[in-house]
């Protein structure tokens, strides 16, 4: 990898990078580019939580918020707000490499960490995991959904066993059924599957990777799951995790099933029916590894601009500052996962939003700029904030999230992650129309994007929340060019060391995106209205329960 030479911008950080004062307060593409370049430099080491990269990132963000005149909005210490919110996290790391085998059909197969299987560090506070000849059982999609009359477990005693399950929902292959067709539900997401396995008493759970239903390739799985893992600190971690959680390559899983006397595609078809029964595989799984575990404190960075007339009502702009950090080397030997697009771009947008808001007259409501940690570890920074809000969720007007904006020039359209109905989306469409930009539904609802960004931590608690997405109908090249860039990014850059800043990137489209979010946010911050969830939304009831607090 060609290392970015940023000494002129960076050294030392305490003296760095208050960007030159602008001639006006318009969103500046050069500033966006320089923020991304800085945050995604090798000096920031991939912005992993609980690393030196975190400290550099926090210092940079705080400096930038201070420079534009924002106020600290974090934890109260001695009656004064600080710039950060402490986020205690469990930190879990495998020591060395797991030794993993499957015995089937009279043969013992060795599974290589990172190549055949991706075993996650145990998050149950154990020092070591040692499974010896644990029976393997195929559990379909690993879903238990009583409201859909669906149970892949069928009440079987699974203690001491290791399950193998498919990623996504039972509807994914056909596009029809009880789980909304192609659009992924929460039951299709990997965190749900691991948690349900823990509830069922399994000793471990292995998810079979396939690129289409997972929505990303094996490189993403390997890089995200073989490095340091984090979780919020839990009183009973075994209620959420088994000791052994892993992904396995499709071809490896299919070979194991074949040796056990089963056809992979036949079992997958059977799993698409509510009549599916668990299938013992007459195969034994063994693994042994040690886990180093500790509790660390990461940080959310919080800035605000206090409202002029209704300061106790809040519009929150969010982005996650973290990325994967340092991990396994790619084919070029690069170990730094720079995270330029994901989420250097969203963090740069947050900084520009703060600068533009701060240069304008104060809004009626308070505007909060929240840069959260550990998104890549499971939305943990936003989850901690939403569980321990600095500002009441009942009085939070809306959350507008930016995550992985595309530096590919202007687009005729825009979107949001996932599918949901709420008046906040209607407001966004209204402001987009003023700029001749149209709303495009999520092109890949099967990817479950709604559950994969930080706005979800707020949405599930009832706060109207969206994660903004730049469009794919590019002014230069149309939808073909937009899709080509997105496909290339997903396959060659997403959660890989190749996600690096480039001087060739075109930030003019991001300027339009940030302007649109600013217009919407400022309108909300100067209004008296409260966005609402649409009828039938799973988040409407919890929001409605606190309606009296917003009168």
A few lines on this structure:
This protein has helices spanning 7-10, 29-39, 52-68, 190-199, 211-214, 218-225, 250-259, 264-271, 340-358, 380-387, 423-433, 455-459, 478-492, 508-525, 540-544, and strands at 71-72, 76-77, 80-81, 84-104, 107-111, 117-119, 128-138, 144-145, 150-151, 162-166, 204-209, 229-232, 244-249, 279-305, 310-320, 325-326, 336-337, 365-372, 396-402, 413-416, 438-439, 465-470. The chain is of the alpha/beta class.
Description:
The chain is α/β, with parallel strands linked by helices. The chain contains 15 helices and 22 strands. The longest helix is centred in the middle third of the chain and has 19 residues, at 340-358. The N and C termini lie far apart (56 Å).
Percent of residues in beta strands: 25-35%
Could you say which overall geometry the principal axes of the C-alpha atoms support?
globular
Terminal-residue CA separation: 56 Å
Q: Tell me the number of helical segments per DSSP (H or I, 4 or more residues long).
A: 15
Please state the structural category. Answer: alpha/beta
User: What does the radius of gyration come to?
Assistant: 23 Å
What percent of residues adopt helix (DSSP H or I)? 25-40%
* Largest β-sheet summary: 16 strands, mixed
Count the beta strands: 22
Low-confidence stretches: 1-23
Q: Quick check: average pLDDT?
A: 93
């Amino acid at each position: 990898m060609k290392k970015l030479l940023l000494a002129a911008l960076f050294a030392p950080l305490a003296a760095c990078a208050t960007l030159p004062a602008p001639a006006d307060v318009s969103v500046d593409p050069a500033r966006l580019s320089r923020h991304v370049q800085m945050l995604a430099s090798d000096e920031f080491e991939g912005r992993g939580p609980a690393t030196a990269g975190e400290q550099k990132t926090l210092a940079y963000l705080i400096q930038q918020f201070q420079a534009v005149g924002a106020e600290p909005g974090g934890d109260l210490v001695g009656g004064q707000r600080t710039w950060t919110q402490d986020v205690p996290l469990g930190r879990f790391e495998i020591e060395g490499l797991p030794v993993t085998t499957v015995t089937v059909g009279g043969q013992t197969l060795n599974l290589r960490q990172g190549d055949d299987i991706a075993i996650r560090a145990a998050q149950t506070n154990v020092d070591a995991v040692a499974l010896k000849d644990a029976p393997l059982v195929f559990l379909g999609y690993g879903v238990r959904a009583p409201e859909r009359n669906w149970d892949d477990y069928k009440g079987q005693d699974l203690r001491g066993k290791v399950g193998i399950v498919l990623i996504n929902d039972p509807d994914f292959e056909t596009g029809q059924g009880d789980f909304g067709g192609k659009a992924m539900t929460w039951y299709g997401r990997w965190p749900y599957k691991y948690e349900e396995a823990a509830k069922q008493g399994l000793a471990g759970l292995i998810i079979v990777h396939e690129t289409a239903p997972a929505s990303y390739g094996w490189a993403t799985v390997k890089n995200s799951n073989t490095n340091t893992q984090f979780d919020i600190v839990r009183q009973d971690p075994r209620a959420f995790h088994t000791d052994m959680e892993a992904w396995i390559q499709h071809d490896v899983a299919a070979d194991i099933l074949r040796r056990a006397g089963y056809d992979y595609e036949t079992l997958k078809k059977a799993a698409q029916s509510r009549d599916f029964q668990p299938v013992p595989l007459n195969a034994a799984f063994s693994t042994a590894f040690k886990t180093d575990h500790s509790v660390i404190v990461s940080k959310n960075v919080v800035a605000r601009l206090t409202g002029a007339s209704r300061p106790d009502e809040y519009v929150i702009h969010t982005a996650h500052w973290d990325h994967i950090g340092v991990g396994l080397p790619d084919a070029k030997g690069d170990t730094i996962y720079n995270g330029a697009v994901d989420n250097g771009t969203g963090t740069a947008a947050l900084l520009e939003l703060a600068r533009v808001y701060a240069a304008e007259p104060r809004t009626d409501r308070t505007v909060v700029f929240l840069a959260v940690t550990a998104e890549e570890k499971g939305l943990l920074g936003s989850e901690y904030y939403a569980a321990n809000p600095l500002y009441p969720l009942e009085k939070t007007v809306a959350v507008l999230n930016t995550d992985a904006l595309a530096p590919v020039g202007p687009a005729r359209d825009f979107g949001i992650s996932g599918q949901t109905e709420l008046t906040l989306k209607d407001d966004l469409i209204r402001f987009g129309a003023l700029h001749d930009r149209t709303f495009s539904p999520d092109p890949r609802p099967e990817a479950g994007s709604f559950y994969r960004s930080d706005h979800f931590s707020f949405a599930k608690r009832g706060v109207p929340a969206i994660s903004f997405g730049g469009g794919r109908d590019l002014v230069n090249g149309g939808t073909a060019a937009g899709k080509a860039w997105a496909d290339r990014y997903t396959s060659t850059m997403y959660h890989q060391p190749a996600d690096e800043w480039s001087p060739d990137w075109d930030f003019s489209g991001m300027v339009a995106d940030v302007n649109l979010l600013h217009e919407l946010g400022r309108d909300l911050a100067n209004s008296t209205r409260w966005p609402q969830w649409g009828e039938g939304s799973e988040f409407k009831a919890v929001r409605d329960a606190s309606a009296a607090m917003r009168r």
